Amino acid sequence: MNDTLLEVKNLRTYFHTFKGTVKAVDDVSFSVGRGEILAIVGESGGGKSVTGFSVIRLIEEPGVIESGEILFEGRDVMKLSEREVDRLRGKEISMIFQDPMTSLNPVYTIGRQIEESLLLHTKLNREERRAACIDLLRSVGISNPESRLKAYPHQFSGGMRQRVVIAIALAADPKLIIADEPTTALDVTIQAQILRLMADLVRAKNRSMILVTHDLAVVSEMADRINVMYCGKIVETGSARKVIDESAHPYTKGLIDSIPDLERDRKRLNTIKGIVPNMFELPEGCNFAPRCARATELCFGVEPEQREIGAGHFVACHFPLGGPAHEEEARS
C-alpha cells in the first residue's frame, strides 16, 4: 500500500502585479504521509501560507498557480473541476485559518457553523447532526457542549473559538488538515494547549496535517518532518530531529539560535542579520546569501540545488553546516 497521502511536485504560485511578479512559491516539492504531521516553517513572506492555500486551490487573483502537480491520493487536484474541488475541501482536505476571531461568522450560532460542514459533506439527519456537533465540541475540550451549541462566537474566549474552528475542520473527518498559523492570535499558554489538542486528535484518527508556522520551537516536539522555507523555496527538509538537532542550512540554524533558551544565561538573543529581500527584486544565486556569514562569490552567482546529506535529510546550500570545510568547498 502507498503510504503517501499528498505529493506536491514542482509547484509554482506567482502573483502578477503592476509592480512585477512575486514568486511566492517557486518550484516547491514535498510529500505528506498518512498519519504524518509535516511542519512548514520560516519567516513571514517566505511562502508558507501560499503553499497551503495552493494545495486546495484557494489562490485568488492576482495569484496564479503557474505549474506543478498536487497529487492527493493519486488524483491531480490541478485537473479537477471547480465542483470537484468544492467536494474535496472540507470533506477530504480541511483548513484551519490563522485568526479564530475572524474565522467564525458573528451572526450565526456555534452549532449552526459546525453543522454546515455536516450538511455539505454527510448524509446525517438533523438529530444525528446535532449529536455529532456535541461530540465534536466535547472532543476539542469544550465543557457543556449541549448548551454551547446555541452560543455565538462573541460569547467565547479566543482559545475556545480556536477550538470551535478545529471542530469545524474535523467535522467531516478529513484525511488531511492544513493548519495555517493556528495559534498566532492566542497567548502562549493557550497555544501549547491548542497545539497538543490538534496533535492528539490527528494521531488518534490516523489523519495527516500540514502545520504552517514561523516558530520552530512550536513544532519541535509535535512535527514528524519539517520543511524550512525562505523566499518561496524549501531550503532544508528532513525529520524534525534532524532539522532541529543537525541543522545544515545557515538559515535554519539562525532560526533555532534565535529561540530563547532558559538554560543559558545570555544578555542578548542571537539574530539573523539583515532582512528578507524584496520579493520583486530577489538576488542572484542563493536568496539567503546577502544575510549569510558563510556566503562566497559562488553563492551570489549560482543558485544551490537540493542535495541529500543524510537519510531523508535534504538541504539547498553550497556550504551546508556540518559538511566539508568551508574553505575547501569554496576552492572546489
Mind explaining what this structure looks like?
- It is a single chain.
- With 332 residues, this protein is of the alpha/beta class.
- The protein has one domain: P-loop containing nucleotide triphosphate hydrolases (Rossmann fold, 3-Layer(aba) Sandwich), CATH 3.40.50.
- The protein has helices at residues 48-55, 82-88, 100-103, 110-121, 126-139, 145-148, 158-170, 188-204, 216-219, 240-245, 250-257, 297-301, 326-331, and strands spanning 4-17, 20-33, 37-41, 63-72, 75-76, 93-96, 176-180, 208-213, 225-230, 233-239, 307-310, 313-315.
- The strands form two sheets. Strands 6-7-8-3-9-10-12-11 form an eight-stranded mixed beta sheet, sandwiched between helices. A four-stranded antiparallel beta sheet has the order 2-1-4-5, with helices on one face.
- The longest helix has 17 residues, at 188-204.
- The chain starts with a strand and ends with a helix.
- Residues 325-332 have low confidence and may be disordered.
The amount of helix comes to 25-40%
The helix tally amounts to: 13
User: Judging from the principal axes of the Cα atoms, what is the shape?
Assistant: globular
* Strand ordering within the main sheet: 6-7-8-3-9-10-12-11
Rounded to the nearest angstrom, the radius of gyration is 21 Å
Gap between N and C termini, in Å?
A: 44 Å
CATH architecture: 3-Layer(aba) Sandwich
User: Mean pLDDT score, rounded?
Assistant: 89
User: Uncertain regions: pLDDT < 50 for 5+ in a row?
Assistant: 325-332
